[in-house]
UniProtKB/TrEMBL annotation:
Gene Ontology terms for molecular function: acyl-CoA dehydrogenase activity; flavin adenine dinucleotide binding
GO BP of this protein: fatty acid metabolic process
Source organism of the structure: Mola mola
Positions of the Acyl-CoA dehydrogenase/oxidase N-terminal domain: 41-140
GO cellular component entries: mitochondrion
Annotated protein name in UniProt: Acyl-CoA dehydrogenase/oxidase N-terminal domain-containing protein
SUPFAM superfamilies cross-referenced by the UniProt entry: Acyl-CoA dehydrogenase NM domain-like
Keywords, in A-Z order: Fatty acid metabolism, Lipid metabolism, Oxidoreductase
Pathway(s) per entry: Lipid metabolism
Coiled coil: none
Database matches in InterPro entries: AcylCoA_DH/ox_N, AcylCoA_DH/ox_N_sf, AcylCoA_DH/oxidase_NM_dom_sf
Keyword Lipid metabolism: yes
């Protein structure tokens, strides 16, 4: 990320402020570059790459047909569940991956690069539906039937 400072005073102030936090460096006159605010763990990078590959191989070939039909392909939905992408934060005891909310965001981001509709479906499942089951469901009445 680069910030272009139009005046020399603004440039010096930005460099002074940000370099005191070790976040920026000056590469060219008037341009300040920032270090990324987020770096990914090895596990997060592996997840991003796996979802990227899955989305390219499994979802991308279906996008045109789903758009033409204005409907989600049932096999795509089934494969999202099979890949564990519809239960990212769900405890493994109930068939989920037991991962984090941030992992859900990474998955949704990678899916959206291929098909935003599939990403929204995955997002709603992970952030709304699964949360409700987790908060309101009991093992006997809901959870064992959903995953």
């Amino acid at each position: 990320v680069a910030l272009v400072c139009r005046s020399e005073g603004a440039q010096l102030a930005a460099v002074r402020l940000l370099s005191s936090h070790d976040m920026a460096s000056e590469r060219a006159p008037g341009v300040v570059s920032f270090s990324p605010l987020q770096t990914y763990s090895e596990e997060e990078n592996m997840m991003r790459e796996a979802v990227k590959k899955y989305a390219q191989e499994r979802i991308a070939p279906c996008v045109s047909k789903m758009d033409e039909n204005s409907a989600m392909d049932e096999e795509v939905i089934k494969s999202l569940f099979e890949q564990g992408l519809m239960g990212i934060e769900i405890d493994p005891e109930y068939g989920g991956t037991g991962s984090t909310f941030f992992s859900s965001i990474l998955v949704i981001e990678e899916l959206a690069k291929v098909d935003p509709s599939v990403a929204v479906l995955c997002d709603i499942q992970n952030t709304l539906i699964n949360t409700l089951f987790g908060q309101l469901g009991t093992h006997q009445t809901h959870l064992h039937k959903t995953l």
